[in-house]
Specification:
The chain has 410 residues and is an alpha/beta fold. The chain contains 14 helices and 14 strands. Strand 11, helix 11 (309-322) and strand 12 form a beta-alpha-beta unit.
Length: 410
Amino acid sequence: MKTPEAYRTHIIFIGRRNAGKSSLFNAFIGSQVAIVSDHPGTTTDPVYKSMELLPIGPVTLIDTAGTDDEGQLGQLRSSKTFSTLHKADIACLVIEANGMWTEYEESIVDELKALEIPFIVSLSKYDLGVNEGLVEFIKSKKYEYRVLSVSDEGSIDGLRVAIASIAKKPYEPPLIEDLIDGGDFVVLVVPIDLEAPKGRLIVPQVEAIRECLDAEAIPVVTKERELRWTLEGLKNKPKLVVTDSQAIMKVMADVPEDLPLTTFSVLEARHKGDLIELVKGLSAINNLKDGEDILISEACDHRTLADDIARVKIPRWLENFTGKKFNFEIHSGREYPQDLQKYKLIIHCGGCVITRQMMIERIKQAKALGIPIVNYGVIISYMHGATPRVFEPFPEVKMIFSEIENAQRT
């Protein structure tokens, strides 16, 4: 089974036009993936390629347009390159070995430092000459660097080793493993999701099963219609029940009050993002006004159905819950829309197909603009009266939600 994109280390090749990024990208992979030309600006949109890089494991390499691209179209390409940085776990800053350090490199390094992305400077095309002054400058900055040429396989191997050496495994809270112990029964309520291909479960459900097995717990998987009989048939009381958010009302009715209950989306909010910040976003809902713009953001493009969660259900539920009418805009893809500041609320998907760093960066962007943000599961549970019960496994989150409720009463 192919490793999901969300679990791959993302390595970005970035630099000015004609610095040798695409040639290096191809050499690193060992095949011709990116188009290479002497004409500046050959790469227009980011190019993605997955591979295995030991000892890191599965990685995705990203080739990008030059940061010094000119003209109106060139500026759009450059902007796209900088927005792609948010996806990177490691950066390879490519400069011609006989070139100069300019404000373009300085702006890239500033952005990498701000995003806390480790990077290595690759001085390419050393066979065309080496500017020793450039090398000394990089040394003075104490930047990790390599001098290389795509015609020298040994130097490319050296870059692979160097990138692997600076790779750091990003912190990622468990999905469920820290909430259970060996021997615990964990009931996973899994409605058949029409958007999941036949024979498949959606990502958070698969992750939960795997983490239960890793913890030597016993996952019991059932549909919502069979939940009551499942609970009655268990001799041992389950440690936890986890359900799909859309089935929360039916499940909550069947799960005794003394049995901890949460949703896959709440678990995913902690695992992939910032659960506390996403819960804080709930405080904005009662203050929304008629006609305000609300962004529903999906990190992936998927086949939409007649009763789509983003396009039909959430808008309907929110308008029924508030008694107001809003202007909902649906945006799918790896980046936010450009005019983000116009929205009064962002409702984000669980982010199961993107990395934690990407999701955290999306939350940071919203926070920097003062825009409240929630995820699907948190707002669905809230609108269906399942809060604070679904926060029971997380005392700090439950306390923050209580503060929100108290503030709204005063």
